[in-house]
Amino acid sequence: MTYIDTNGDVVLLIGEATSLVVSSKVLSVASPVFAAMLSPHFREGSSLSSTCPTQIPLPDDPPVAVTTIVNILHFRNDSVWVCTFEELFDIALVADKYDLALALGPWRHVWLMRIPDYIVDVDGCPGQDSNRESREIFIRYVFKDPDGFEKVTKQAIIWGEGAEDVCEALPDWVAAGISKCRESVLRHLMSIADHYRLQYQSPRVKCRVRPHVSGAQAMACGAAVLGSLIRHYSELGIFPMPGRPYPGLSAGKLAAGLKGLRCFVDLDTGHSVCTISARIAKRVDAALDDVKGLELADLSGASGAILDLTELEY
């Protein structure tokens, strides 16, 4: 048995081997959930005494996370350490369950500052798995970090493939918002792609070298661009256009693919000006620049202070 408070009147029984003696007053001040549980209206709060502490089983809560939290609540900061990402996720789960996030004070700032920036690998794709990403979103949601929340949800919108292993703790509105925005970005990118396909599929001549070449050469130029588009789109999996929710397709990868278009026009006769790769790339970049992550401040019913990490120095 570990005495977090030597005069404690509550024993938290966590898992199979962890027992923590704590103060009911501290728990009640820090957590509305514990305040209700330890009120005289419930069995746990009807006979509080330091000589015979009330036992509260918490079999489903992670011991390390609960121990860390109660150490903070009892001002035992010398017993608190900078935790791993997995431990931080567990702390967020417990903090959300018992409405304890605000009571963790400066420690949530410290932990959030320690989460590494979103890693991007050599192919331009995020280097972390979708499950870890969704857990980071949850952590930033619980600890009310609007900037970090917006940043990581933006990455999820751009790089999500529609079949992520989303953690169950993530609020439905967040998962639904990411999914909706992801589909919207993909539709926008595919509309850009389809715009050029339809443009070159029309009978109007698009060759920029005309009238310096014959009509046949101009038509051949347009056909070469159209063929390049259809072949490239087929390789990207967007010809024919797929239907929602676009499983296995991410906006980030599609954008990179569209920007990699090669137009097989006749360069020897000056048709290099007829390629449309740069035009597509410009519109694709603009589409991704317009992507915004979800806004934590807009959460209906949100309470508590929003973190401002810009004032902290480490």
TrEMBL record:
It comes from the Eukaryota. This is BTB domain-containing protein. Residues 8-74 form the BTB domain. InterPro entries: BTB/POZ_dom, SKP1/BTB/POZ_sf.
